[in-house]
Amino acid sequence: MRQFSPEPAGLDGLPPLYSISKGEVVSVQTYGAFVRLPGYKKEGLVHVSEMSATRVENASEIVDVGEQVWIKVIGKEIRGDKVKLSFSMKAVNQGTGRDLDPNNVMAEQDARRRKQFRDQTGNRITLEAVLNTTCSKCGCKGHFTKDCFSAPGLQYALLPEEDDAEPRQQQQQTSTVASQQDSDKKKKKKKRERKESESDSSSSSSSECKTKRRRHDHTRDREDKKKKKHKKHKSHKHS
């Protein structure tokens, strides 16, 4: 059985940064593959983002356990009492072992991106509890009078709880229905008034027509009487 010598403290005894070697895949996970280099006890991780220039969903799509792959050491760091090695497969031609990133531009960009991602994880959002008290200055709940920032004429209120939201919503629906009913009543009233107005105007126009007809008939009767009288007068003269 092969005996491994004790690993030196710190980063000594590890493969040099940006060096290229051929190693064996000893473990495949969803997020990447662990590769062991000959002559080193420490394994390094090839993350899925470092396996190919195209997007990789699962490391098993690219490598299998026991497979020999070319890697480039792109990261060495100590976290507590653990040493972490980061490898890259996309920076090396898997057929010839040629360095595809000789100036280490891609490696530095990836290292910068990983560092920014780690820094953002520490920015946690803290939520403060709402105090069960009423401010004597503004009359609102949730803060003390000494912490009140309200100005004259401005009022602040807490958002309603989920349990109170349903009755409030039902009340709004009821008021909406009531306003709709009032609107319908007003429309009906206006329609009825319009009909009455039309009927009044039609009745007045019909009465005017009757009056005109009556006057016309009266005038015609007078003319007929005059004609008859004139005829009688003529007949008397002839006799």
Automatic annotation (TrEMBL):
State the residue spans of region: Disordered.
Answer: 163-239
UniProt lists compositionally biased (Basic residues) regions at: 225-239
Supply the Gene3D superfamilies for this chain: Nucleic acid-binding proteins
Q: Which GO terms label this protein's molecular function in UniProt?
A: RNA binding; zinc ion binding
Low complexity bias: where?
169-181
Q: Which domain of life is it from?
A: Eukaryota
Q: Give GO terms for biological process.
A: RNA stabilization
Residue spans crossing the bilayer:
none
Keyword Endoplasmic reticulum listed? The answer is no
Q: Does the keyword Phosphoprotein apply?
A: yes
GO annotation, cellular component aspect: nucleolus; ribonucleoprotein complex
Q: Where is the protein localized? A: Nucleus, Nucleolus
Q: Where is the CCHC-type domain?
A: 135-148
Keywords from UniProt, A to Z, are: Acetylation, Metal-binding, Nucleus, Phosphoprotein, Ribonucleoprotein, Zinc, Zinc-finger
Domain annotation S1 motif: ranges? 18-90
The record describes its quaternary structure and partners as: Interacts with PNN. Associates with the 60S ribosomal subunit.
Identification of the protein by name: Zinc finger CCHC domain-containing protein 17
- Species of origin reads Seriola lalandi dorsalis
